[in-house]
């Protein structure tokens, strides 16, 4: 085991050295139509058309309906909507998963917002309109989901679930137009370190496995440094703070606790992708917190070489 850990650490260190060399060369790259370090999400007018295409809009609508149908049949109906119905009711489940589920709804809203944005932009809507309608589409989707939950005997319509998902749906728009989001990324990581959720759950939908999920705020230190200091700091290296919960939430043991982590992170935007396809790939990749050296700082102190993998 010690030999394997040493090999992993050596490989990780070698990768960091290669990335440092690659990153330090980036500031000398030729300038393009945009400042890739500060206006990463802005669209090149030559990349995407600006005239609305009715067939493309119809295509986006059709794919959306197909995706909703597949999600309902594959996940929701077999997960928690197969229960017998009841009268419509509200329920704000503040005690469930120590509220970490609200971060889960937020994360699902983010993925919806990004996907809807790509669809609307491809169909010819303007950049601003695509972001706006993407957020509204995430809102309508979460309302529809929670209305169905409202008729379930085990669940209920949760205003805070809808609000969390809606905020996530508008995050891509915030990252484009609100300056503070140039300095921080919101990320998610998942790795099955405990089967506690799956042992007690009859649905076994991984999105509810919150004791194996961690939600992160990743800070881009390079952009926070004075200009004179940036030449000494790798632009891709970020520091993230994460929040999770322990398995007691699902085992029924007393006193379940939240867990707080501090970790190194990677900012893939620092590699300055120029093509629209490359920027789209990086955009999605940057929502996932990849394994990195991590310290758990609460409620106990632990060191992990490549969290979320615990070994």
Write out key terms for the chains shown.
single chain; 311 residues; alpha+beta; six-stranded antiparallel beta sheet; 10 helices; 6 strands; disordered N terminus
| C-alpha-based Rg, rounded | 21 Å
Count of beta strands: 6
What is the residue-averaged pLDDT?
Answer: 81
- Uncertain runs are 1-34
Intertermini distance: 9 Å
**Residues in helices, as a percent range:** 40-55%
Class from helix and strand fractions: alpha+beta
What is the element string, with H for helices and E for strands?
HHHHHHEHEHEHEHEE
Number of helices: 10
Please identify the oligomeric state.
Answer: single chain
Instruction: Characterize the largest beta sheet: strand count, sense, and whether it forms a barrel.
Output: 6 strands, antiparallel
Please state the overall shape, judged from the principal axes of the Cα atoms.
flat
Q: Strand order within the widest sheet? A: 1-2-3-4-5-6
What does this structure look like?
The chain is of the alpha+beta class. The chain is 44% helix and 14% strand. Strands 1-2-3-4-5-6 form a six-stranded antiparallel beta sheet. α3 (100-122) packs across α4 (127-149), α3 packs across α5 and α4 runs antiparallel to α5. The longest helix has 26 residues, at 54-79. It is flat and about 60 Å long. Mean pLDDT is 81; it is low at 1-34.
Summarize the structure.
With 311 residues, the chain is α+β, with helices and mostly antiparallel strands.
